């Protein structure tokens, strides 16, 4: 399996972007593997994603790194990337999002910027906070970025999560 396998690029610029992104990804010294990545080319922009190992996935869980590359855009947007969920590129507005627009950069340079953003995000420490019930079982869980406390995902009783967690465990230590 290759990095960012999936739909075929629709243009020479998308092909160049994907080739460069694959080259950068192959050099990541991380626990991410090619099967954690994908590409979709049926919509604008060219969409790429990285499933972050060790984190839950699903609706309302912003645990997938998503990126978009526009070869042409009426808003002059070139790149966008964010922590996302099952909906593509709709969780924007966080300080750690990537948004590059109003500039002209080549496809290979755009891929380098996107790969660097993915690499930086994959190196961030993630912690799992757990709330333990009286019976000793986990009744609620949060996954948060350790450096900002931003919640990526939550499961279980929201009432329990209003109090301090019983324990906090590193899920993805910094690399």
Radius of gyration computed on alpha carbons: 18 Å
Question: Average pLDDT, to the nearest integer?
Answer: 90
Q: Describe the sheet with the most strands.
A: 5 strands, antiparallel
* Count of alpha/pi helices: 2
Strand order of the largest sheet: 1-2-3-4-5
Share of helix, binned: 10-25%
Class derived from helix and strand content: alpha+beta
Give a structural overview.
By secondary structure, the chain is an alpha+beta fold. Helix content is 18%, strand content 31%. It is built from 2 helices and 9 strands. The chain has helices at residues 12-26, 107-122; strands at residues 37-40, 46-51, 64-69, 77-84, 98-101, 126-132, 138-145, 151-156, 167-172. The strands form 2 sheets. Strands 1-2-3-4-5 form a 5-stranded antiparallel β-sheet, with helices on one face. Strands 8-7-6-9 form a 4-stranded antiparallel β-sheet, with no helix packed on it. A hairpin with a 7-residue loop joins strand 3 (64-69) and strand 4. The chain is elongated and about 60 Å long. The two termini are 24 Å apart.
């Amino acid at each position: 399996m290759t990095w960012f396998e999936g739909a075929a690029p629709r243009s020479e610029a998308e092909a160049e972007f994907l080739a460069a992104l694959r080259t950068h990804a192959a050099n990541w010294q991380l626990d991410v593997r090619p099967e954690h990545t994908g590409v979709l080319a049926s919509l604008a922009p060219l969409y790429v994603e990285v499933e972050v190992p060790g984190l839950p996935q699903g609706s309302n869980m912003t645990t997938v790194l998503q990126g978009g590359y526009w070869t042409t855009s009426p808003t002059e947007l070139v790149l966008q990337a964010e922590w996302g969920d099952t909906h593509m590129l709709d969780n924007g507005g966080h300080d750690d999002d990537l948004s590059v627009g109003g500039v002209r950069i080549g496809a290979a340079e755009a891929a380098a910027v996107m790969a660097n953003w993915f690499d930086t995000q994959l190196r961030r420490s993630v912690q799992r906070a757990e709330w333990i019930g009286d019976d000793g079982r986990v009744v609620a869980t949060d996954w948060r970025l350790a450096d900002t406390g931003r919640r990526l995902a939550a499961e279980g009783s929201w009432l329990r999560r209003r109090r301090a967690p019983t324990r906090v465990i590193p899920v993805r230590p910094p690399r």
